[in-house]
Amino acid sequence: MSKTAVITGASKGIGAATAILFARKGYNVVLNYNQSYQSVKLLTSSLTGQGFSVSAIKADVSNKLETDFLINETIDKFGTVDVLINNAGISISAPINEMDLHDSDRIFDVNLKGVYNCCKSVVPRMISQKSGKIINISSMWGQVGASCEVAYSAAKAGVIGLTKALAKELAPSGITVNAIAPGIIDTTMNSDYTIEEIEDFVSRIPISRMGTPDEVALAAFFLAGDGADYITGQVLGVNGGYVI
Ligand code: NAP
């Protein structure tokens, strides 16, 4: 029987690339989205047209009722949840004294509470089946901190703490929990940077380019596979060697 992966924030960027990879590799894939209905519709139509087993489910990960819905609908449709990839995220940059409180609350709610909610929704099921892989997309800024991204860095650091704690808690139940900390990846999340700012970042990356969404997807695919059965509580950097 095919395994089932739920990927949050799969309407574009890293989540979309991950959904495509997992579908091609034979998983049933649930593409979660919140606002980008048209993008997710195009992507799911394309994947379904190629014969892959996919479904799009709308849920705002910051809302626990909606993450419960996401997981329950997945189980209704595919019968199981084997992999949860907590990828949904937002970033808003501003110095702390100019950051709107509503914006910083939203950053924490989506990037940290969203991961907590999805884990809390899926864990009862994974414990009862005594297996599961949870992969949380953090950020290198959660490891080293980014100026003008204090809330984002703190939320992503929180994701790393959550990952390490939950890994210990769930290991006896046969469930692994790991994080990926991407560096600068070429997605719309970075579209507000000027060409000069991107060139400045790239000049500091040892591999001399931005990463691609596919490269993060491949790391997630590895962590979801049997080859990673003895890996838990870890943070895998996908950053071209860019560590400050
Ligand atoms: P992106 O292209 O902006 O995509 C973000 C995704 O998150 C979208 O699919 C969006 O869905 C979804 N999302 C946002 N808020 C949501 C919510 N409340 N509920 C459900 N889904 C929600 O960003 P990306 O670059 O692919 O980033 C993916 C993840 O990687 C994020 O966690 C990000 O922090 C992390 N990351 C990215 C980079 C980078 O350089 N790009 C580096 C490090 C870490 P809708 O549009 O449908 O709302």
What would your notes on this structure say?
The chain is built from 8 helices and 7 strands. By secondary structure, the chain is an alpha/beta fold. The N and C termini lie far apart (44 Å). Residues 8-15, 32-36, 60-62, 87-91, 110, 114, 137, 139, 182, 184-185, 187-190 line the site of NADP nicotinamide-adenine-dinucleotide phosphate.
Provide the fold topology:
Elements: E1 4-7, H1 13-24, E2 28-33, H2 37-49, E3 54-58, H3 64-78, E4 83-86, H4 101-129, E5 132-137, H5 140-144, H6 150-170, E6 175-182, H7 195-203, H8 213-224, E7 235-238
Parallel strand pairs: 1-2, 1-4, 2-3, 4-5, 5-6, 6-7
Helix pairs in contact: 1-8, 3-4, 4-6
The structure holds NADP nicotinamide-adenine-dinucleotide phosphate (NAP).
Q: Considering the protein shown, what is the CATH homologous superfamily?
A: NAD(P)-binding Rossmann-like Domain
Please state the overall shape, judged from the principal axes of the Cα atoms.
globular
Strand content: 15-25%
The main β sheet shows up as: 7 strands, parallel
Q: How many domains, as an integer?
A: 1
The CATH first-level class comes to Alpha Beta
Report Rg: 17 Å
Give a short summary of the structure.
This protein has 244 residues and is α/β, with parallel strands linked by helices.
Features:
Rossmann fold; 48% helix; 244 residues; 7-stranded parallel beta sheet; 8 helices; binds NADP nicotinamide-adenine-dinucleotide phosphate; alpha/beta
